[in-house]
Amino acid sequence: MTGGGTRDGGQTDGPLPRLFVALAFTTGMIDAVSFLDLGQVFVAAMTGNIIILGLGLAGDGTPLPSALSLMSFAAGAGGGGRAVLSWPGNRHRGLLLAVGIAVQTVLVCGASVLASRYGFAEPWARWPIIVMLAFSLGWGYAIVRGMKVLDLNTTVVTTTLTALFAEPVVPAKQSRRLVSICALLAGALVSGALRRVLFPAAPLWTAVLVLTGCTVITCVAARRSDAERWR
């Protein structure tokens, strides 16, 4: 998920930058689980999936998990993009984000239930987990892009990392970019720790809790009396 577009940061974005940091954190947790437990496949970092798919097609491993993830992510992104385009212009963008995160929450929760009940080893359970997680992140990525928040990326950090070092130093922009990268890193770090200390699906359940909190906070913030300033 990345915030692109023409809006400037600061006041016009309201609580969105902080929410995007939390979303980047959950992405790090979820992608770490997918890579470690779902057969070295990514559900957010599609660049990595394309490389893994190419290797699989060349005979080095199976291409099915990465292909399934790519298709699911694309379907989610398509759905999220349509949601952004069809959202009424007179309705607050925060409510769109709240709906988007709520859909993500339901999908990640479904994947968490499957992972907790059946584990990651059974192929018949692994495939729907990949589909739900990749679809949820593609969906969320498209909707966050529709928020048009600059210099905050919640899914893919290659562009953010390049901009961090290649563009002229503007403190406000650089701090946002650095925070989004660190949030993704922190999510992966926490995910690894939770897997070792608790159980393999613990990072997914933690992501569900964070996403639920983000949904509630976004919905409440969009209905506050001062919400017009970041409409």
From TrEMBL:
Keyword Repeat recorded: no
Keywords from the UniProt entry: Membrane, Transmembrane, Transmembrane helix
Keyword Hydrolase: no
Ranges that cross the membrane: 41-58, 64-85, 97-118, 124-144, 178-198, 204-222
Entries under PANTHER family matching the protein: SLR0142 PROTEIN, UPF0700 TRANSMEMBRANE PROTEIN YOAK
Name used for this protein in its record: Uncharacterized membrane protein YoaK, UPF0700 family
Organism, as annotated: Thermomonospora echinospora
Phylogenetic lineage: Bacteria, Bacillati, Actinomycetota, Actinomycetes, Streptosporangiales
